[in-house]
Design brief:
The longest helix has 15 residues. Strands 1, 4, 5, 6, 8, 9, 10, 11 and 12 form a nine-stranded mixed sheet that branches. By secondary structure, this protein is α/β, with parallel strands linked by helices. The chain contains twelve helices and 13 strands. The chain has one domain: Spore Coat Polysaccharide Biosynthesis Protein SpsA, Chain A, CATH 3.90.550.10. It is globular.
Length: 305
């Protein structure tokens, strides 16, 4: 995981004062495709190895030097996340100490040593949609110069996480209204993603994001996913009555509206994005995680045949 692969220069990056200090990570949906397990366990708490997806996303933020993380959860998920990130389970630590196995507590201590993590619930008065968790965290970030928004559905694998890429790009382009991450996809699957269209005469300025275009009509092969850097001006467009497709409040709609009057930059990922939004893709991402990060990953080919 990210905290296990940081190089010396990355540790310096983490301790330097940055203009982007906060991040919002969302996991406030019903996760109905994962029922029955998600009636009790938040989707972001499903494992990658022996850690949850949410921790992997948090570590991506830590690598970027983020000092405060706001997790937006369901009412059922809030106490689960609070327990995971704040409960020191001292009784377990004491038992391990008496058994001479205190090293097994080290992963718990790593979680407790993360920067400040605040867990809140989504405002129930807001419409359904992935923009509503962001609005629910508005008061935590509205005084910031810029902040990150990450969907816990999306994971990125690689030594350099997207969060760090976004922060570094913003330091070079502080006039940008937003910066979004993108990854090339094959022409066969463009109808499954939001595909990026560029402003005429540019190669990195967003015009719009076309949701699930018909094959052959796509303006590019770059798909947008849940890694954004935005300024508080986004809240001028993320408002309850500004709903879009299916009557939902969409973050990408607000970002597209920012691009009308301002500059929204598109940055190609230096990592590999995978989604965990449904059981099949989650299983694929879990396999990839194990292959890359777990000591037993080399045995996968032997096990799956």
């Amino acid at each position: 995981m990210y905290n296990a692969v940081l190089h010396t220069d990355e540790r310096v990056f983490m301790t330097t004062d940055r203009p982007v200090r906060k991040a919002i990570i969302t996991d406030a949906g019903f996760a109905s495709r994962y029922l029955p397990i998600t009636k009790t366990v938040p989707k972001g708490m499903l494992p990658l190895g022996n850690c949850p997806i949410m921790q992997f996303v948090v570590e991506e933020c830590v690598q970027a030097g983020i000092q405060e993380i706001i997790i937006v959860a369901t009412p059922e998920g809030k106490p689960v996340y609070e327990d995971y990130f704040h409960n020191s389970v001292i009784r377990i630590k004491k038992q391990l100490e008496t058994q001479g196995k205190l090293d097994r507590y080290e992963p718990v201590q790593q979680v407790l040593d993360f920067p400040k993590i605040e867990v809140i619930t989504q405002d129930s008065s807001l419409p359904y949609g992935n923009g509503s968790p962001v609005v629910s965290a508005q008061r935590y970030v509205e005084a910031e110069e810029a902040f990150l928004v990450l969907y816990s559905d999306d994971v990125v694998f690689g030594e350099r996480g997207d969060a760090r890429t976004l922060v570094e790009k913003y330091e070079q382009h502080r006039d940008a209204a937003a910066i979004i991450m993108a990854q090339p996809v094959s022409a066969e699957v463009v109808d499954k993603y939001g595909i990026i269209s560029f402003k005429q005469g540019t190669e990195n300025e967003l015009d719009t994001i076309i949701e699930k275009p018909d094959k052959g009509s796509e303006p590019s092969l770059l798909a947008s996913y849940g890694r954004y850097l935005v300024k508080p001006t986004i809240f001028e467009h993320l408002i309850p009555h500004n709903t879009g497709k299916d009557g939902e409040l969409w973050t990408v709609d607000a970002i597209t509206q920012l691009a009308v009057a301002g500059k929204v930059l598109v940055e190609r990922t230096q990592a590999e994005w995978m989604t965990t939004g449904d059981p099949e893709n989650y299983f694929h991402a879990h396999l990839e995680y194990v292959k890359r990060y777990e000591k037993y990953g080399s045995k996968l080919s032997e096990w799956v045949g």
